[in-house]
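tool=predict chain=A
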Amino acid sequence: MAVLNGGDSVSDDSDLSDEAMGRPVAQAQAGQVPVQAKAAALGKTSVLAPPKRTSVKLRLADGSETDCRAGIHLARGAHRHTVFRDIPFSDDKARAIFDKATGQPDRFGLIYAVPGVEGPLAKDGLLGFASVQAGEHFLGTRTLIATLQTLNISQKLTGTLLGGKVAFRLVQAVRYWAKERGCAHLLVHVTNGENAEDADRFFWRCGMVTAGGNYVDTSP
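tool=predict ok
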């Protein structure tokens, strides 16, 4: 388990904050001038096109059936790589998590990382998602704790720079989500089972520290 104190800073990047809450974001940032505009200013008639980059947008799941299907598709694939992969995956339970996130947004969150292009989300088009919930300590009161239940990245992005970017931005979005709801702590449960050491390094780099851990009984 990794833990982040609620007082830790959240990125003030307007791109992250606005996208995580589903608001539109300006495409151009201050000081960034398109190559074509620079060429025009210099009187040139043609320039080489800039390299194509995959843009990523973060937003809350919107409650549509399209979003639900994409989330279930990614969750099903990720389940195969957890320590609980021997347990049959339940579409109904996955849908229930989706319904809670879209129906009770103050306590449940489902943050999607999607391609930054217009149009409906394809079934396999989700880049990643984070499922988080806020609640009181089981023996405490009047203080909310945010728990990151799962952070899944598309298997197509495993081991890529884009996959790392998506994972990092999802963590930042979860921090923002927790701060907006006044959570005092953020906990992360890691049960991926296949690359636990990589996950540990990743969350340390995100500024989190270990507080206990998850143990699985492997005896017959």
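Confidence is low (pLDDT under 50) at residues 3-51. The CA atoms of residues 144 and 183 lie 5 Å apart.
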